[in-house]
């Protein structure tokens, strides 16, 4: 189950980034996201923010992640934790 969530997140984030030619900066299409060159491989979600994963694979995730204070909702958007239940 954890592997399928990780694979879904990886594929989702891979397609949610946009490279702007002539720029060294990547942008994200979804509101509340920020591009990172070295983010966690275990991002916080509505399902795990109360009990974050203790052991994440080492390495960097390159792509769009939710900004600090936001978590990934099951609909793919970044929300504040209280909004997870809507």
UniProtKB/TrEMBL annotation:
<dbReference type="InterPro" id="IPR036084">
    <property type="entry name" value="Ser_inhib-like_sf"/>
</dbReference>
<protein>
    <submittedName>
        <fullName>Venom peptide HtPi2</fullName>
    </submittedName>
</protein>
<keyword id="KW-1015">Disulfide bond</keyword>
<dbReference type="GO" id="GO:0030414">
    <property type="term" value="F:peptidase inhibitor activity"/>
</dbReference>
<dbReference type="InterPro" id="IPR051368">
    <property type="entry name" value="SerProtInhib-TIL_Domain"/>
</dbReference>
<keyword id="KW-0646">Protease inhibitor</keyword>
<feature type="domain" description="TIL">
    <location>
        <begin position="32"/>
        <end position="84"/>
    </location>
</feature>
<feature type="signal peptide">
    <location>
        <begin position="1"/>
        <end position="24"/>
    </location>
</feature>
<keyword id="KW-0732">Signal</keyword>
<dbReference type="Pfam" id="PF01826">
    <property type="entry name" value="TIL"/>
</dbReference>
<dbReference type="InterPro" id="IPR002919">
    <property type="entry name" value="TIL_dom"/>
</dbReference>
């Amino acid at each position: 189950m954890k592997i399928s969530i990780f694979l879904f997140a990886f594929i989702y984030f891979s397609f949610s980034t946009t490279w702007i030619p002539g720029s060294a900066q990547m942008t994200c299409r979804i509101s509340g996201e920020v591009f990172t060159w070295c983010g966690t491989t275990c991002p916080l979600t509505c399902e795990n923010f109360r009990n974050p994963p203790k052991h994440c694979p080492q390495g960097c995730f390159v792509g769009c992640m939710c900004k600090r204070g936001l978590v990934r909702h099951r609909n793919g958007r970044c929300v504040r934790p209280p909004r997870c239940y809507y």
